[in-house]
Write a structure and sequence with these properties.
Helix content: 10-25%
CATH superfamily: Ferrous iron transport protein A (FeoA)
CATH architecture: Roll
CATH class: Mainly Beta
Largest sheet: 6 strands, antiparallel
Oligomer: single chain
Number of helices: 3
Length: 103
């Protein structure tokens, strides 16, 4: 299976595959970026994969590894609003503190 898939080093959500030769890029949680900052999604941690409904929400909002966006607002409650894929999406504090991005 590994050979057929081209020897991937991460799963589709950016999490390292055990035993793969993978070096994670330097990244930050999405919620730590300032308004106006551009980013590229690196990783949706397994903690979010297991949160009921979260993965479906992120996928439907196009918040996936490799996608780029811009922080458009940050609320006092920790919600981070991004523009990604031409849409504005609010991401709650739980997810924005865990989604890893590069700038």
């Amino acid at each position: 299976m590994d050979r057929i898939l081209g020897r991937p080093t991460t799963c589709p959500h950016g999490n390292p595959i055990p035993g793969a030769d993978y070096t994670a890029p330097a990244s930050s949680p999405l919620g730590e970026l300032a308004v106006g900052a551009s980013f590229v999604v690196n990783r949706i941690p397994e903690e979010l994969e297991f949160a009921p409904g979260m993965l479906e929400f992120l996928e439907s909002a196009d918040i996936l590894p490799g996608r780029s966006g811009v922080i458009t607002a940050a609320s006092p409650d920790g919600t981070t609003t991004v523009e990604i894929g031409g849409a504005h999406v609010g991401i709650g504090a739980f997810a924005s503190a865990r989604i890893l991005v590069t700038t």
